[in-house]
Design a protein that fits this description.
By secondary structure, the chain is of the alpha/beta class. Strands 1-3-2-4-6-5 form a six-stranded mixed β-sheet, sandwiched between helices. Strand 5 and strand 6 form a beta hairpin. Helix 3 runs parallel beside helix 7. The longest helix is centred in the C-terminal third of the chain and has 18 residues. The termini are far apart. About 30% of the residues are buried.
């Protein structure tokens, strides 16, 4: 039926959007495998190539660059890109680098210079945080998506708008909360960060939590919960439960809940998230101002 086809088409487009597909390159699908031209075979030794064989142009030693690029100015190719940092070295550097940050601004500057996470090479920019760094409650998500990568702030897409409505339901907004992610760079295609990527970024997140010093910490989704609690339990078992969390200077309360992106895909679970947000509201009232 047309209605079913329309619904299926909308669901497919939503899936593509969440997967990072954000541009159409044609009006209809093209089977490029069926259009491949046969490879030119190398003639046997001693035989000349056919007269009609196409001649490949000799590549220029320096490719044209955009104005202002070092190669365009000097005529010399740019220096070779640095080799990726070995995982063990990156993890050691990540554990050491955040310690020198005495403020959130300093921590952000250190992250801007940090080259131990390969995601920074594919992301548009660092997505550090949003909201009030002096807020009593801090939300930690998984990683930025396409919209966050463009704007440089966490939770600004569809899931961010849902989060704003959930906050408003308990009397909060972005001036009264602080929002960050475990991984501050967008993974390609909005995929889930690998355990290695999360482990490399975790020391920065822990220092960010310590410097923000909230009374209540909220984990949005399974990756954030498992990373900060060091647990293998799924979000359906951990959500709505309070856990002690040591920031490095004091012990605070942590509660996991469903990620807004999951709630968009599974609205039936919004009632559980609502219970979690009521628990957050009650905890803030108990701790006082």
């Amino acid at each position: 039926m047309p209605t079913d086809r329309n619904r299926a088409a909308r669901e497919l487009l939503a899936f593509y959007r969440e997967a990072g597909v954000d541009a159409a390159i044609g009006e209809s699908p093209v089977d490029r495998l069926s259009q491949e031209e046969p490879l030119q075979r190398t003639p046997p030794a001693g035989k000349a190539a056919p007269a009609h064989a196409p001649q490949m142009p000799t590549p220029s030693p320096v490719r044209p660059e955009r104005p202002g690029h070092p190669a365009a100015v000097t005529g010399r190719p740019p220096p070779p890109a640095q080799a990726p940092v070995a995982p063990e070295a990156a993890l050691m550097a990540a554990r050491e680098a955040p310690r020198s940050a005495a403020s959130l601004d300093e921590l952000r500057a250190i992250l801007e210079r940090f080259e131990g996470c390969a995601l920074r090479a594919t992301a548009t920019q660092l997505v550090f945080a949003d909201g009030n760094p002096r807020a009593r409650v801090m939300f930690v998500g998984e990683a930025p998506g396409r919209d966050e990568d463009i704007e440089g702030r966490p939770f600004v897409g569809r899931s961010g708008k849902l989060l704003d409505r959930m906050l408003a339901a308990i009397g909060l907004d972005r001036t009264s909360v602080y929002i960050a992610n475990i991984v501050p760079w967008r993974p390609p295609g909005n995929r889930t960060p690998t355990p290695q990527e999360s482990a490399i970024c975790l020391p920065f997140t822990l220092r960010q939590i310590e410097l923000a010093d909230p009374d209540v910490l909220v984990c949005l989704g399974n990756p954030s919960t498992q990373t900060l609690l060091g647990t293998s339990e799924g979000i359906t078992k951990t959500r709505g439960r309070w856990f002690p969390f040591h920031t490095g200077t004091r012990e605070i309360r942590l509660i996991p809940t469903f990620h807004p992106a999951f709630l968009l895909r599974s609205p039936v679970n919004k009632r559980f998230a609502w219970r979690d947000f009521l628990a957050i509201k009650k905890a803030l009232a108990q701790t006082g101002s």
